[in-house]
Design a protein that fits this description.
The complex is a heterodimer of chains A (about 180) and B (about 100). Chain A is about 70% helix and about 0% strand. Chain A is an all-alpha fold. Among the domains of chain A are: about 1-80, NADH-ubiquinone/plastoquinone oxidoreductase chain 6, subunit NuoJ (Four Helix Bundle (Hemerythrin (Met), subunit A), Up-down Bundle); about 125-165. Chain B has a domain at about 30-95: Orthogonal Bundle (Helix Hairpins). In chain B, α1 packs antiparallel against α2 and α2 runs antiparallel to α3 (about 60-90). The longest helix of chain B has about 30 residues, at about 60-90. The chains are: A mainly alpha (about 180), B mainly alpha (about 100).
């Protein structure tokens, strides 16, 4: 049963990931990314991390993907003319290198972890209480730093996305600067 | 019957490779960004799988931090794309040669 769910979501994740990378229309790519992210959230549930799965859906599909769609709408990239592949050889080279990389990764992971039995799923691993306890004791400092990082990111995004002519540094207004 | 953990790792490796190929071959800035999100997602899957393997919370908490960093990165990156688009009317990365030479 669980195996069937895993296989179904794994196939869905890989197929939609390929659509993300291969589709020419960025709107379809973004919507396909939603499918990949939700499939991965299902994997998280199967692995006994329901809180991370909820976060994945809330943050990724609720916030980040919506941001992507807004920016695509704002920039109107659909109309953008994407030149056809400059170099067919480059494309084949990329596919070959990707296949080789994936093969190496698969062999490495398989050699290292095939047949390794998982720990029995402890109640503490799944519980939100245990997670919160380690987050607010051992990982308190990273947690605070993440807050600072998000503040910095919001400030940076606001400054970057403003119109250049809307920038007012204070000393230019009211004739304070005199001549241009 | 449950799926063995190595399967999850293999799935994460496949997703990461797809994302890497996309980030290297596509020229639309938005799609490159989506591919980077795909790679982050594959890394998250690996972290949760290891968390299960060792019966530890640390992997899940690292995923929590990665999610926050991904949100910050998406906000700043998309703002950069808006600024670049305003400057040159394109986000085709082959035509962004402002800092070349």
């Amino acid at each position: 049963m669980e195996l069937g769910i895993f296989v179904a979501f794994a196939l869905l994740a890989v197929a939609s990931a390929i659509v993300v990378v291969a589709h020419r229309n960025p709107v379809y790519s973004t919507l396909s990314l939603v499918v990949t992210l939700v499939s991965t959230a299902a994997m998280f549930v199967l692995l006994g991390a329901p809180f991370i799965a909820a976060l994945q859906i809330l943050i990724y599909t609720g916030a980040i993907v919506v941001l992507f769609l807004f920016v695509i709408m704002l920039l109107n990239v659909r109309r953008e003319a994407f030149a056809p592949a400059a170099n067919q050889g480059q494309r084949w080279g990329a596919a070959l290198a990707g296949a080789a990389f994936a093969g190496l990764l698969l062999v490495m992971l398989w050699r290292a972890y095939a047949g390794v039995p998982a720990q029995p799923l402890a109640a503490d691993l799944v519980s939100l209480t245990g997670l919160a306890r380690s987050l607010f004791t051992r990982y308190m400092l990273p947690f605070q730093i993440i807050g600072l990082l998000l503040l910095a990111a919001v400030t940076a995004a606001t400054v970057l996305a403003r119109r250049p002519d809307a920038v007012d540094f204070g000393d230019r207004g009211e004739g304070a600067g005199g001549e241009p | 019957m449950t799926a063995p953990l190595s399967w999850y790792l293999v799935l994460a490796a496949a997703l990461f490779t797809i994302g890497a190929v996309g980030a290297l071959t596509r020229r639309n800035g938005i799609t490159i960004f989506l591919s980077i999100e795909l790679m982050l997602n594959a890394a998250n899957l690996t972290l949760v799988a290891y968390s299960r393997l060792y019966g530890e919370h640390t992997g899940q908490l690292v995923v929590f931090f990665v999610l926050a960093v991904a949100a910050a990165e998406a906000a700043v990156g998309l703002a950069l794309f808006i600024a670049i688009y305003r400057h040159g009317r394109t986000i085709d990365v082959n035509r962004l040669n402002l800092m070349r030479w």
